[in-house]
Target: proton-translocating NAD(P)(+) transhydrogenase
Amino acid sequence: MNIGVPLETYLGETRVAVTPETAKKLKAQGHTVKVQSGAGVAASAPDEAYAAVGAEITDRAGALAAELVLKVRSPDADELALMKPGAVLVGMLNPFDKPGLQALASAGLTAFALEAAPRTTRAQSMDVLSSQANIGGYKAVMMAADRYQRLFPMLMTAAGTIKAARVVILGVGVAGLQAIATAKRLGAVIEASDVRPSVKEQVESLGAKFIEVPYETPEEKEAAEGVGGYARPMPPSWLERQKVEVAKRVAQADIVISTALIPGRAAPVLITEEMVKSMKPGSVIVDMAAGRGPDGVGGNCPLTETGQTVKKHGVTIIGETNLPALVAADSSSLYARNVLDFLKLVVTKEGAFAIPADDDIVAACLMAQGGELKKN
Ligand code: NAD
Model:
Protein backbone atom coordinates (compact mmCIF):
# COMPACT_ATOMS: atom_id res chain seq x y z
CA MET A 1 0.00 0.00 0.00
CA ASN A 2 1.08 3.56 -0.73
CA ILE A 3 1.36 5.45 2.56
CA GLY A 4 1.71 9.24 2.62
CA VAL A 5 3.11 11.33 5.46
CA PRO A 6 2.57 15.07 4.91
CA LEU A 7 4.19 17.93 6.80
CA GLU A 8 1.63 19.20 9.32
CA THR A 9 0.34 22.65 8.42
CA TYR A 10 -1.66 23.50 11.57
CA LEU A 11 -0.12 26.51 13.33
CA GLY A 12 2.41 25.38 15.94
CA GLU A 13 2.07 21.70 15.09
CA THR A 14 5.55 20.20 15.18
CA ARG A 15 4.67 16.53 15.43
CA VAL A 16 4.75 13.98 12.65
CA ALA A 17 2.60 10.86 12.29
CA VAL A 18 5.37 8.53 11.12
CA THR A 19 8.90 8.53 12.51
CA PRO A 20 11.91 6.84 10.91
CA GLU A 21 11.34 4.00 13.41
CA THR A 22 7.77 3.35 12.28
CA ALA A 23 8.60 4.09 8.60
CA LYS A 24 11.10 1.24 8.79
CA LYS A 25 8.42 -1.10 10.17
CA LEU A 26 5.91 -0.07 7.51
CA LYS A 27 8.54 -0.70 4.84
CA ALA A 28 9.27 -4.12 6.33
CA GLN A 29 5.56 -4.88 6.02
CA GLY A 30 5.87 -4.26 2.28
CA HIS A 31 4.39 -0.75 2.06
CA THR A 32 5.71 2.21 0.12
CA VAL A 33 6.21 5.13 2.48
CA LYS A 34 6.17 8.60 0.95
CA VAL A 35 7.26 11.32 3.33
CA GLN A 36 6.91 14.98 2.44
CA SER A 37 10.28 16.68 2.58
CA GLY A 38 10.68 18.35 5.98
CA ALA A 39 7.72 16.50 7.58
CA GLY A 40 9.84 15.29 10.50
CA VAL A 41 12.31 18.15 10.83
CA ALA A 42 10.58 19.88 13.76
CA ALA A 43 10.47 16.51 15.53
CA SER A 44 14.22 15.96 15.05
CA ALA A 45 13.71 13.54 12.15
CA PRO A 46 15.38 14.93 9.03
CA ASP A 47 14.65 13.65 5.52
CA GLU A 48 17.88 11.64 5.55
CA ALA A 49 16.67 9.60 8.54
CA TYR A 50 13.57 8.56 6.58
CA ALA A 51 15.54 7.94 3.39
CA ALA A 52 17.95 5.73 5.37
CA VAL A 53 15.11 3.34 6.22
CA GLY A 54 13.83 3.21 2.67
CA ALA A 55 11.12 5.89 2.68
CA GLU A 56 10.71 8.03 -0.43
CA ILE A 57 11.01 11.77 0.08
CA THR A 58 8.34 13.56 -1.91
CA ASP A 59 6.48 16.85 -2.09
CA ARG A 60 3.17 17.80 -0.46
CA ALA A 61 1.04 16.58 -3.36
CA GLY A 62 2.96 13.30 -3.45
CA ALA A 63 2.35 12.62 0.24
CA LEU A 64 -1.32 13.63 0.19
CA ALA A 65 -2.16 11.63 -2.94
CA ALA A 66 -1.42 8.31 -1.19
CA GLU A 67 -3.98 5.54 -0.62
CA LEU A 68 -3.40 5.80 3.12
CA VAL A 69 -2.52 9.19 4.60
CA LEU A 70 -1.18 9.32 8.15
CA LYS A 71 -1.49 12.68 9.88
CA VAL A 72 -1.43 14.32 13.27
CA ARG A 73 -4.13 16.95 12.64
CA SER A 74 -7.17 16.97 10.42
CA PRO A 75 -6.34 18.15 6.88
CA ASP A 76 -7.28 21.72 5.98
CA ALA A 77 -9.20 22.59 2.79
CA ASP A 78 -6.01 22.86 0.69
CA GLU A 79 -4.80 19.49 1.87
CA LEU A 80 -8.20 17.92 1.32
CA ALA A 81 -8.15 19.13 -2.27
CA LEU A 82 -4.95 17.13 -2.81
CA MET A 83 -6.32 13.91 -1.32
CA LYS A 84 -7.92 11.22 -3.47
CA PRO A 85 -11.55 10.18 -2.97
CA GLY A 86 -11.53 6.68 -1.50
CA ALA A 87 -8.25 7.28 0.37
CA VAL A 88 -7.95 6.29 4.02
CA LEU A 89 -7.01 8.93 6.58
CA VAL A 90 -5.80 8.23 10.11
CA GLY A 91 -5.12 11.01 12.60
CA MET A 92 -6.35 13.06 15.54
CA LEU A 93 -9.37 14.31 13.62
CA ASN A 94 -11.40 15.70 16.53
CA PRO A 95 -14.47 13.45 16.90
CA PHE A 96 -16.52 16.39 18.24
CA ASP A 97 -15.89 18.61 15.21
CA LYS A 98 -18.92 17.71 13.10
CA PRO A 99 -18.31 20.24 10.28
CA GLY A 100 -14.67 19.11 10.04
CA LEU A 101 -15.71 15.47 9.84
CA GLN A 102 -18.40 16.30 7.30
CA ALA A 103 -15.71 17.85 5.10
CA LEU A 104 -13.75 14.58 5.28
CA ALA A 105 -16.86 12.59 4.39
CA SER A 106 -17.69 14.93 1.51
CA ALA A 107 -14.16 14.49 0.17
CA GLY A 108 -14.90 10.76 -0.07
CA LEU A 109 -12.36 9.73 2.55
CA THR A 110 -12.50 6.82 4.94
CA ALA A 111 -11.46 8.62 8.11
CA PHE A 112 -10.39 7.31 11.50
CA ALA A 113 -10.10 9.63 14.51
CA LEU A 114 -7.81 7.93 16.99
CA GLU A 115 -9.02 10.03 19.94
CA ALA A 116 -12.30 8.12 19.77
CA ALA A 117 -10.74 4.76 20.68
CA PRO A 118 -12.29 3.29 23.83
CA ARG A 119 -10.20 3.47 27.03
CA THR A 120 -9.86 -0.31 27.20
CA THR A 121 -6.86 -2.53 27.84
CA ARG A 122 -6.78 -3.73 24.21
CA ALA A 123 -6.80 -0.14 22.93
CA GLN A 124 -4.03 1.06 25.24
CA SER A 125 -1.20 0.73 22.72
CA MET A 126 -3.05 2.99 20.27
CA ASP A 127 -4.41 5.45 22.85
CA VAL A 128 -3.27 8.80 21.48
CA LEU A 129 -5.06 10.79 24.19
CA SER A 130 -3.00 9.01 26.82
CA SER A 131 0.34 9.11 25.01
CA GLN A 132 0.02 12.83 24.32
CA ALA A 133 -1.57 13.83 27.65
CA ASN A 134 1.25 12.07 29.45
CA ILE A 135 3.79 14.27 27.70
CA GLY A 136 1.58 17.33 28.17
CA GLY A 137 1.45 16.75 31.93
CA TYR A 138 5.22 16.56 32.09
CA LYS A 139 5.74 19.67 29.99
CA ALA A 140 3.20 21.64 32.04
CA VAL A 141 5.35 21.14 35.13
CA MET A 142 8.51 22.00 33.20
CA MET A 143 6.94 25.26 31.97
CA ALA A 144 5.74 26.12 35.46
CA ALA A 145 9.21 25.45 36.90
CA ASP A 146 10.73 27.65 34.21
CA ARG A 147 8.42 30.61 34.94
CA TYR A 148 8.41 30.24 38.72
CA GLN A 149 10.98 32.48 40.33
CA ARG A 150 11.64 30.09 43.18
CA LEU A 151 12.74 26.49 43.54
CA PHE A 152 10.60 23.36 43.60
CA PRO A 153 12.57 21.32 46.16
CA MET A 154 13.23 22.22 49.76
CA LEU A 155 16.85 23.31 49.99
CA MET A 156 18.90 23.51 53.16
CA THR A 157 21.91 25.70 52.54
CA ALA A 158 24.47 27.56 54.64
CA ALA A 159 22.53 30.72 53.74
CA GLY A 160 19.30 29.29 55.14
CA THR A 161 16.44 27.02 54.15
CA ILE A 162 14.23 27.35 51.09
CA LYS A 163 10.75 25.87 51.36
CA ALA A 164 9.47 23.30 48.88
CA ALA A 165 6.96 24.58 46.31
CA ARG A 166 3.28 23.79 46.91
CA VAL A 167 1.64 22.42 43.79
CA VAL A 168 -2.09 21.93 43.27
CA ILE A 169 -3.25 19.69 40.42
CA LEU A 170 -6.87 19.99 39.29
CA GLY A 171 -8.10 17.03 37.26
CA VAL A 172 -6.17 13.82 37.64
CA GLY A 173 -6.52 11.93 34.37
CA VAL A 174 -3.44 10.92 32.42
CA ALA A 175 -1.99 14.46 32.25
CA GLY A 176 -2.70 15.17 35.92
CA LEU A 177 -1.06 11.94 37.08
CA GLN A 178 2.06 12.68 35.05
CA ALA A 179 2.08 16.26 36.39
CA ILE A 180 1.98 14.87 39.94
CA ALA A 181 4.79 12.40 39.22
CA THR A 182 6.94 15.08 37.58
CA ALA A 183 6.38 17.71 40.30
CA LYS A 184 7.11 15.04 42.91
CA ARG A 185 10.43 14.20 41.25
CA LEU A 186 11.29 17.89 41.51
CA GLY A 187 10.58 17.83 45.24
CA ALA A 188 7.26 19.72 45.43
CA VAL A 189 4.48 19.18 47.99
CA ILE A 190 1.38 18.24 46.02
CA GLU A 191 -2.40 18.20 46.51
CA ALA A 192 -4.86 17.13 43.82
CA SER A 193 -8.58 17.24 43.12
CA ASP A 194 -10.78 15.20 40.79
CA VAL A 195 -14.47 14.42 40.61
CA ARG A 196 -13.83 10.68 40.30
CA PRO A 197 -13.24 9.00 43.67
CA SER A 198 -11.24 6.17 42.06
CA VAL A 199 -8.45 8.68 41.51
CA LYS A 200 -7.72 9.07 45.25
CA GLU A 201 -5.66 5.88 45.44
CA GLN A 202 -3.62 6.80 42.35
CA VAL A 203 -2.91 10.27 43.74
CA GLU A 204 -1.78 8.85 47.06
CA SER A 205 0.36 6.17 45.43
CA LEU A 206 2.37 8.97 43.79
CA GLY A 207 2.97 10.62 47.15
CA ALA A 208 0.44 13.45 46.78
CA LYS A 209 -2.59 14.32 48.92
CA PHE A 210 -6.12 13.96 47.56
CA ILE A 211 -8.47 16.88 48.25
CA GLU A 212 -11.52 15.16 49.74
CA VAL A 213 -14.96 16.44 48.76
CA PRO A 214 -17.58 13.99 50.07
CA TYR A 215 -20.48 12.89 47.86
CA GLU A 216 -23.63 13.67 49.83
CA THR A 217 -26.54 12.73 47.56
CA PRO A 218 -27.23 9.69 45.33
CA GLU A 219 -27.16 12.10 42.39
CA GLU A 220 -23.63 13.25 43.30
CA LYS A 221 -22.43 9.66 43.77
CA GLU A 222 -23.85 8.58 40.43
CA ALA A 223 -22.34 11.54 38.55
CA ALA A 224 -18.95 10.92 40.19
CA GLU A 225 -18.79 7.42 38.74
CA GLY A 226 -18.52 8.98 35.28
CA VAL A 227 -18.98 7.03 32.09
CA GLY A 228 -16.39 4.85 30.34
CA GLY A 229 -13.72 6.13 32.75
CA TYR A 230 -14.49 9.75 31.79
CA ALA A 231 -15.93 12.40 34.09
CA ARG A 232 -19.51 13.63 33.79
CA PRO A 233 -20.67 17.11 34.80
CA MET A 234 -21.11 17.14 38.57
CA PRO A 235 -24.21 18.60 40.29
CA PRO A 236 -23.76 22.26 41.34
CA SER A 237 -24.05 21.28 45.03
CA TRP A 238 -20.86 19.18 44.81
CA LEU A 239 -19.04 21.73 42.65
CA GLU A 240 -19.75 24.43 45.27
CA ARG A 241 -18.19 22.32 48.02
CA GLN A 242 -15.25 21.44 45.75
CA LYS A 243 -14.77 25.17 45.07
CA VAL A 244 -14.46 25.91 48.78
CA GLU A 245 -11.82 23.20 49.25
CA VAL A 246 -9.93 24.07 46.09
CA ALA A 247 -9.96 27.81 46.96
CA LYS A 248 -8.20 27.11 50.28
CA ARG A 249 -5.44 25.13 48.53
CA VAL A 250 -5.06 27.55 45.62
CA ALA A 251 -4.55 30.47 48.03
CA GLN A 252 -1.56 28.64 49.52
CA ALA A 253 -0.24 27.26 46.23
CA ASP A 254 2.83 28.35 44.32
CA ILE A 255 1.89 26.39 41.22
CA VAL A 256 -1.53 25.28 39.95
CA ILE A 257 -1.76 22.87 37.04
CA SER A 258 -5.27 22.34 35.79
CA THR A 259 -6.23 19.58 33.38
CA ALA A 260 -9.95 19.12 34.12
CA LEU A 261 -11.99 18.17 31.08
CA ILE A 262 -15.30 16.52 30.30
CA PRO A 263 -15.38 14.99 26.79
CA GLY A 264 -17.46 16.99 24.32
CA ARG A 265 -18.22 19.78 26.80
CA ALA A 266 -16.74 23.05 27.93
CA ALA A 267 -14.02 22.68 30.55
CA PRO A 268 -15.31 23.31 34.08
CA VAL A 269 -14.32 26.62 35.69
CA LEU A 270 -12.29 25.65 38.76
CA ILE A 271 -9.98 28.65 39.32
CA THR A 272 -12.06 31.83 39.59
CA GLU A 273 -10.66 35.35 39.36
CA GLU A 274 -11.12 35.65 43.14
CA MET A 275 -8.90 32.60 43.60
CA VAL A 276 -6.24 34.06 41.31
CA LYS A 277 -6.32 37.28 43.38
CA SER A 278 -5.79 35.20 46.53
CA MET A 279 -2.57 33.65 45.17
CA LYS A 280 0.89 34.82 46.15
CA PRO A 281 2.73 37.16 43.75
CA GLY A 282 4.97 35.11 41.46
CA SER A 283 2.71 32.05 41.51
CA VAL A 284 2.14 30.21 38.25
CA ILE A 285 -0.96 28.60 36.74
CA VAL A 286 -0.65 26.24 33.78
CA ASP A 287 -4.13 25.82 32.33
CA MET A 288 -4.08 22.72 30.17
CA ALA A 289 -7.75 23.28 29.35
CA ALA A 290 -6.86 26.59 27.62
CA GLY A 291 -9.22 27.41 24.78
CA ARG A 292 -11.79 24.89 25.96
CA GLY A 293 -13.64 26.97 28.55
CA PRO A 294 -17.27 28.09 28.16
CA ASP A 295 -17.80 29.39 24.57
CA GLY A 296 -14.16 28.54 23.81
CA VAL A 297 -12.94 31.32 26.12
CA GLY A 298 -10.41 30.63 28.89
CA GLY A 299 -9.99 27.16 30.27
CA ASN A 300 -10.32 25.92 33.85
CA CYS A 301 -9.51 29.55 34.67
CA PRO A 302 -11.52 32.30 32.96
CA LEU A 303 -8.46 34.59 32.97
CA THR A 304 -6.49 32.19 30.77
CA GLU A 305 -5.73 33.53 27.31
CA THR A 306 -5.59 30.85 24.67
CA GLY A 307 -2.08 30.20 23.43
CA GLN A 308 -0.67 33.07 25.54
CA THR A 309 1.28 33.49 28.75
CA VAL A 310 -0.12 36.44 30.69
CA LYS A 311 0.36 37.97 34.12
CA LYS A 312 -2.83 38.76 36.02
CA HIS A 313 -3.05 39.90 39.65
CA GLY A 314 0.67 39.08 39.95
CA VAL A 315 0.14 35.48 38.79
CA THR A 316 1.60 34.07 35.57
CA ILE A 317 -1.07 32.17 33.65
CA ILE A 318 0.15 29.87 30.88
CA GLY A 319 -2.49 29.04 28.26
CA GLU A 320 -0.42 26.89 25.91
CA THR A 321 -2.82 24.72 23.90
CA ASN A 322 -0.44 22.18 22.43
CA LEU A 323 2.06 21.15 25.08
CA PRO A 324 2.97 17.84 23.38
CA ALA A 325 4.09 19.81 20.31
CA LEU A 326 6.74 21.42 22.53
CA VAL A 327 8.24 17.97 23.07
CA ALA A 328 7.92 17.06 19.40
CA ALA A 329 10.43 14.23 19.13
CA ASP A 330 9.08 12.09 21.94
CA SER A 331 5.43 12.95 21.36
CA SER A 332 5.85 12.02 17.67
CA SER A 333 7.61 8.84 18.63
CA LEU A 334 4.72 7.71 20.87
CA TYR A 335 2.05 8.97 18.48
CA ALA A 336 3.66 7.18 15.53
CA ARG A 337 3.69 3.92 17.52
CA ASN A 338 0.00 4.44 18.37
CA VAL A 339 -0.74 4.89 14.67
CA LEU A 340 1.28 1.80 13.73
CA ASP A 341 -0.64 -0.27 16.24
CA PHE A 342 -3.98 0.98 14.97
CA LEU A 343 -3.00 0.06 11.41
CA LYS A 344 -2.68 -3.58 12.50
CA LEU A 345 -6.47 -3.54 12.88
CA VAL A 346 -7.30 -2.19 9.42
CA VAL A 347 -4.47 -3.42 7.18
CA THR A 348 -4.28 -7.13 6.42
CA LYS A 349 -1.03 -9.14 6.44
CA GLU A 350 -1.20 -9.02 2.63
CA GLY A 351 -1.08 -5.23 2.87
CA ALA A 352 -4.66 -4.48 1.88
CA PHE A 353 -7.02 -2.13 3.69
CA ALA A 354 -9.99 -3.90 5.32
CA ILE A 355 -12.45 -2.85 8.01
CA PRO A 356 -13.09 -5.80 10.34
CA ALA A 357 -16.79 -6.44 10.90
CA ASP A 358 -16.79 -6.66 14.67
CA ASP A 359 -13.91 -4.62 16.09
CA ASP A 360 -15.01 -2.15 18.74
CA ILE A 361 -11.90 0.02 18.40
CA VAL A 362 -12.20 0.35 14.63
CA ALA A 363 -15.94 0.99 14.89
CA ALA A 364 -15.39 3.71 17.51
CA CYS A 365 -12.69 5.46 15.47
CA LEU A 366 -14.45 5.30 12.09
CA MET A 367 -15.81 8.80 11.44
CA ALA A 368 -16.49 8.83 7.70
CA GLN A 369 -16.82 6.31 4.90
CA GLY A 370 -18.39 6.18 1.45
CA GLY A 371 -19.20 9.90 1.52
CA GLU A 372 -21.12 9.63 4.77
CA LEU A 373 -20.56 10.53 8.39
CA LYS A 374 -20.45 7.44 10.58
CA LYS A 375 -21.21 9.29 13.82
CA ASN A 376 -23.98 11.71 14.73
P1 NAD B 1 -9.65 13.90 30.61
O1 NAD B 1 -8.55 14.58 29.87
O2 NAD B 1 -10.94 13.66 29.90
O3 NAD B 1 -9.99 14.74 31.94
C1 NAD B 1 -8.99 15.05 32.86
C2 NAD B 1 -9.47 14.85 34.26
O4 NAD B 1 -10.34 15.91 34.64
C3 NAD B 1 -10.26 13.57 34.50
O5 NAD B 1 -9.59 12.81 35.47
C4 NAD B 1 -11.62 14.08 35.00
O6 NAD B 1 -12.19 13.21 35.95
C5 NAD B 1 -11.22 15.40 35.60
N1 NAD B 1 -12.32 16.35 35.85
C6 NAD B 1 -13.41 16.64 35.11
N2 NAD B 1 -14.17 17.57 35.72
C7 NAD B 1 -13.54 17.90 36.87
C8 NAD B 1 -13.82 18.81 37.93
N3 NAD B 1 -14.92 19.57 37.94
N4 NAD B 1 -12.94 18.87 38.96
C9 NAD B 1 -11.82 18.10 38.97
N5 NAD B 1 -11.51 17.23 38.00
C10 NAD B 1 -12.35 17.13 36.95
O7 NAD B 1 -9.12 12.54 31.24
P2 NAD B 1 -8.14 11.48 30.61
O8 NAD B 1 -6.76 11.76 31.00
O9 NAD B 1 -8.43 11.36 29.16
O10 NAD B 1 -8.58 10.16 31.39
C11 NAD B 1 -9.93 9.77 31.37
C12 NAD B 1 -10.09 8.41 31.98
O11 NAD B 1 -9.61 7.38 31.13
C13 NAD B 1 -9.38 8.20 33.29
O12 NAD B 1 -10.24 7.46 34.12
C14 NAD B 1 -8.21 7.36 32.95
O13 NAD B 1 -7.73 6.61 34.04
C15 NAD B 1 -8.84 6.49 31.92
N6 NAD B 1 -7.88 5.84 31.05
C16 NAD B 1 -8.01 4.50 30.84
C17 NAD B 1 -7.13 3.87 30.00
C18 NAD B 1 -7.24 2.42 29.73
O14 NAD B 1 -7.81 1.70 30.51
N7 NAD B 1 -6.78 1.97 28.62
C19 NAD B 1 -6.13 4.57 29.37
C20 NAD B 1 -6.03 5.93 29.63
C21 NAD B 1 -6.93 6.58 30.46
Summary: The chain has a mean pLDDT of 96.
